[in-house]
Amino acid sequence: MIQQKTLDRLVLQNLINTYAFETQQGRVIDIEQQDAQQKQLSQGKPILEFTLEPLNVTMAVTLDKVSKLGQHRLADTPFILQEESWKKLTPVSVAALIIEDLACRQNNDAVQNGIILDSNGVMKRWIESYEGLKTILEHRNDEMDDIIKEDLNFIETEQNLIYGHAMHPTPKGRAGFYDKQWAQYSPETKSQTQLHYWLVDPKYIAEDYVDGDSISTTLKEKLIENSGDTNISNYQNALLKQYPNYKLLPLHPWQAKFLQQQDWYQRLLEHGELFDIGEMGWYLHPTTSVRTLASFKAPWMFKVSLSVAITNSVRINSSKECYRGMYACRIWRSDYGKQLKTQYPTVEVLNDPAWIALTIDGSIVDETICILRDNPFDAKSSITNLASLSQDHPMRLTNRFATLFEAIHKRTNEPLPQIARQWFDTYLTVAFVPLIQMYYQHGFGFEVHQQNSLIELKDGYPTKFWARDNQGFGYIAEYAAALIDANPQLINEAECVIPEDFADSRVTYYLVGNSIFGLITAIARTGLVSEELLLEQFKQCLQTLEQQFPHRSLFDLLLRSPTLPFKGNLLTRLYALDELTAPVETQSVYVEIPNPLVAG
After folding, report:
1. pLDDT for residue 586 is more than 90
2. Angle at CA 245, nearest 5°, toward 242 and 250?
3. Between 226 and 494, where is the model more confident?
4. Which residues neighbour 251 within 8 Å (Cβ) at sequence distance 6 or greater?
5. Backbone dihedral region of 293: left (phi > 0), alpha (psi from -120 to 50 degrees) or beta?
6. Is residue 360 helix, strand or coil?
7. % of the chain exceeding 70 in pLDDT
8. Is the pLDDT of residue 472 over 90?
9. Pick among 1.10.510.40, 1.10.10.60, 3.40.190.10, 3.30.565.10: CATH of 383-560
């Protein structure tokens, strides 16, 4: 039985934090600063209070944890001040007031630019996310403490991102899944599924494979070789033997059903050019992205197109992502890549060495693209994405960092505050510093937000960092000239060469604002060290890097600018932008936030 209060608090926490951060509206009022009316509400806790337009409504919510970096932990759901007393509203009413306020504040700019704001769409996605989180809590309520265990493997941590991106208003929005499908295909419900396969005449298939001639042929061989794990029926096996030259195309089972509506599907089926042979193969677990599936038994992970709107975007692979993954893989597996691994031994990339898709009239059907990803992890390795590691326990004032630090303390007898600071310093050494060095020494830019940042833990500390998802890999024109000259396809086909000023803003948000600041908040949540102390520790790291790379605009931005660019996920949703299809310069709304590294 889920606790309704927990559900309501969590869904409003994301919305309120994103609203307050992106608009810089509202103020945190400590108990010492509260008047009698505010103390009546707060019961000895800080409150976050703001005035909402256009109704001029005062809304306030009590806080269990205050974050200088915007990720407050709510103690309750909000109240509004009405006739000199505090009234509690339903979550839907609170959401409606906040979204209406945001639309009101943005309306003039939108009208001037001929933009129609999508308030209804934001509300719809928020309700969908609410229902999604409800489904998660129903499935995981009795085992929630599992998410903060010391020893967790890759698949377990991929399934443990309970309430999602901390600064996203609708982190569990998956428009397109019905109730049963939501539970059937989501990582947080610990689901697993097989891929759905089509057997297709080769003239309708496009593919590429770094390690061989045909990924379809290799995939077929792997499925047959591992028949004990791949569950191929007699019917499926007979078709594979009857049509040895036909290509296997893997699809997400939801996507396979969705694509049956297409005219070309019926045409190919009727002409015997496509056989819909159904689900088979390894049982795969959806990872945090929902549409990438993994198993410790499978030779690859599978990143499949999924025509479902997950957070801000419909998650359909594109041909440029295929090319981007192939060229990145070739670079990392070349002699140049081997030198990179020697130079930066703690950093790895999860490469995408192959892809396969259907073509109709000579054009790739993006909705059918399957990208195959390296699968280096096993069940014994302690691998975690930063997002799962950094989240609060939904019901208790703790997180996995508290568990890890206590375990380290028991092994070493070192003071807990020292362990917390050392953990952060180790992460900076293992991940952040080499990523910045690669940025300037080789022109590699990674949009590694917390969900795409993987770390291996040994004795509780990070020892290796993996960047995943080539969608966020870029090459900085000013620093990667030789590499770009040798691989001109990075410009035209992969479309991943970017100028330094653009790269600076993206690194500032993804690597610093999302990953590092989120990590700082999570470590500070243990109560062992403050956000301020960790920010100072990070600032010293940046100053050391600036000595190595002087006169670089990124350090001017991070160390001296009064504000920093930050992606506004709530505003991006209000402006109805799709981050996968819009031009890269306008695919998201960015706002300026006070720079916590220079603020007093």
Report:
1. no
2. 95
3. 494
4. 195, 196, 197, 198, 259, 304, 305, 368, 370
5. beta
6. strand
7. 98
8. no
9. 1.10.510.40
